[in-house]
Amino acid sequence: MKIVLIQHLGFLNGQGGTEKICSFLANGFAAEGHEVTIATCENIKGEAVYPLKEGIKVVNIYNSSIIQYEPKQLYNYRGKNPLLWIKYKIKKKQAKAYNRRLNRKLGREDGLYLLNLRQRSNTWKKYIEGAAPNLIVTMSIGSLLEITYRHTYNIPIINSTNGRPDYDYKNVLWHRGKAEMQELTKSFQHLSATQVLFESYKNFLPDTFKGWCEVIPNPVPQMATTVDHLKKKRTVQYNTDRIPGYQ
Predict the structure, then answer these.
(1) Could you tell me the sign of the dihedral formed by the alpha carbons of 80, 82, 88, 89, in that order?
(2) How do the domains of the chain map onto residue ranges?
(3) pTM, to two decimals
(4) Which site from 9, 78, 205, 247 is most exposed, i.e. has the minimal number of CB atoms within 10 Å?
(5) What is the pLDDT of residues 200-224, one digit of tens each?
(6) Cα separations in angstroms, 126 against 122, 132, 201, 202
């Protein structure tokens, strides 16, 4: 079976918990004989940090045709050079004017977010149609939205939830615009199943989710050797007479 795990951001060079679980799942599927690919869409170069079994592919589908509009950052010059103060004052005014034009054209924050999302989602659609997997596993609801915004698939999709589910679609931990929260919530309807860490976490799934929910705690890899805590440990004696100020 062909399985694609999708972590749209953070996998390349990432050392966090989501990257670790993604690699763990990929290795588990590969050990069962499945053809496994990890797909991401990042404007960076890099590789997987956690070890992957031989044969697992890591694919970055990002390309220069993915148009992403970004507002210009505003910078306040804090030095004492009057010429530089004038220079950065002009640049700040130009950046504000650009941002106003962008907002008028796209409908402020929500319009900008949805336009950029549509560009990325279209790229995911082409990739998934070409890869033709039998199963998709998304590593967050953000990754689920990336592939399902304005698109549907006749492929089962399972989401791996690595925290409380509402952290992924509400303003609980950080700012999200109204449109982003609405689309994240709607994306749950594309899931065949989702995994949560605790039974109580089922209460934080939105009404849009109609699939199967399974409680699977984070894995704890078993070590090949065990530690005998009753065994007397070797100790090292230091000559403290040569350490200045030691008493």
Answers:
(1) positive
(2) 2-65+114-215
(3) 0.79
(4) 247
(5) 999 999 999 999 999 999 877 666 6
(6) 7, 10, 34, 33
Q: What angle do CA 163, 159, 136 make, to 5 degrees?
A: 150
Residue type, 229: H
Q: What backbone torsions phi and psi does residue 103 show, to the nearest 5 degrees?
A: -65, -40
Q: How far apart are CA 115 and CA 21, in angstroms?
A: 30
Phi/psi for 72 (5° steps) reads -75, 140
Residue 178 gets which letter from DSSP? H
CA 237 – CA 213 distance, rounded (Å): 56
| Owner of token pair 């496994």 | 36
Decide: helix, strand or coil at residue 137: strand
CATH of range 2-65+114-215; options 3.40.50.2000, 1.10.10.10, 3.30.565.10, 2.60.120.200: 3.40.50.2000
Q: Say what the pLDDT of residue 205 is.
A: 97
CB 88 within 8 A of CB 120: no
